[in-house]
Amino acid sequence: MPDVGEGLTEAEILKWYVQPGDTVEDGQIVCEVETAKAAVELPIPFDGTVHELRFAEGTTVDVGQVIISVNVGGGAAPEAPVAEAAPVAQAAAPAVVAPVAPVAEEEAEPQGRTPVLVGYGVAASSTKRRPRKPAPGAVTAAPVAPAQAAPAAVPVAVPVSVPEQLNGHGPGAGRPLAKPPVRKLAKDLGVDLATVTPTGPDGIITREDVHAAAAPAPAPAVEAPAPTPVAHPVAAPTAVQAAPVVSTDARETRVPVKGVRKATAAAMVGSAFTAPHVTEFVTFDITRTMKLVEELKSGTDMAGLRVNPLLLIAKAVLVAVRRNPEINAAWDEAAQEIVLKHYVNLGIAAATPRGLLVPNIKDAHAQTLPELSASLSELISTARDGKTTPAAMQGGTFTITNVGVFGVDTGTPILNPGESAILAVGAIKLQPWVHKGKVKPRQVTTLALSFDHRLVDGELGSKFLADVAAILEQPKRLISWA
User: Fold this and answer.
1) Which residues are catalytic?
2) Residues 6+ away with beta carbon under 8 Å from 207
3) pTM flag (> 0.85)
4) Which residues lie across from 284 on neighbouring strands?
5) Residues 430, 442: contact at Cβ < 8 Å?
6) Could you read off the pLDDT of 57-73 as tens digits, one per residue?
7) pLDDT for 186-235, tens place per residue?
């Protein structure tokens, strides 16, 4: 399971597109996984035949665990690197392989290796297809061997030279197993990975291992989980693990909290109890903007593009940000600084079957109205299809949430973490309104602006909200104020 987004530690396997015995090609999509941020399709980096799927659909897997193994035709590595890597483990290898190779001829063949998806560790096997059922026998046979051979499955992760070749790092046989972000962390902290005791699956060094090694006193504590790498290789050849299921009875249903919903809950709780929220409201006549929407729909300038009130509201927000740039900022707690952003990555909250997603349009401030329309359409359709990438949800500076599509008049939105303000758009309804001294039916709506009072005071928040409303009351200000 690769790290598909910085800081993610696990992902749920949503769907397998291949089965054991299928032929795969380099770059072919083999499965779809859901992280705490989005659903992501994973490609295979090899040509070969699928040997085994390690986890069932619906299973949550930690980053770094092997989820699929592939037999690469003609790709067996030479035996020399194995001997250089660990002579003791090589001597113990027949104890693992012999019980699953019933034909003597297979035992005499050179021992092959099965590369895994992300290149962290390799699974030892014979050159022919290995039966699954006898595999547990290798575990029971291990205690008969000498003391060094007790963890019989250790040779699965020992030949570190192979993943280095797969990752293009050269033939060094003693290079510790670690992902690129972990290697960078070790370099920044001045930690030699060769001195770090790995606790991750298949002997992978994790971020926690590096931090523990960098700490002066707690470092020895990481030695306790040392046997962890044995657990995954022993369990790997067995049946695919069962996925968590929804628990239902006559009176209640329990649904596991995971993936996007789990991440959203944690982020919202953290935001609500970290940033002091203030919410202000404004109700106004949006009739002229609604007429402009209809004119743009019938015109040729926006032909083929989706035109709706949200498009003009988004444009109004961008103009108001230009007039009140301090609203587009973030609070850096660690540095005790206010970070003013000179760009707008405009987030749009989207309700999807997997929960609330907030992807953002990069550099929305620099887009024309047709470009903004195309970006909004792509963002929303991608989110509803569950294909939003983690990168699309990172780096937002200001968010719009449209609760009006549900018929709701207004609300008090919670800030998206790392942002200073969020605008909630209420339902647009025909209501009696005083217009030019007379009560007339007009299109009316309510906007609610929540902001972080640590860096946005009442004056700034009020000016910004008033500007957005003024633009939408008189949309010609989109030109005169731009």
Assistant:
1) 453
2) 181, 182, 185
3) no
4) 445
5) yes
6) 888 888 889 999 999 87
7) 777 778 888 888 888 878 888 888 878 876 544 344 444 444 443 333 33
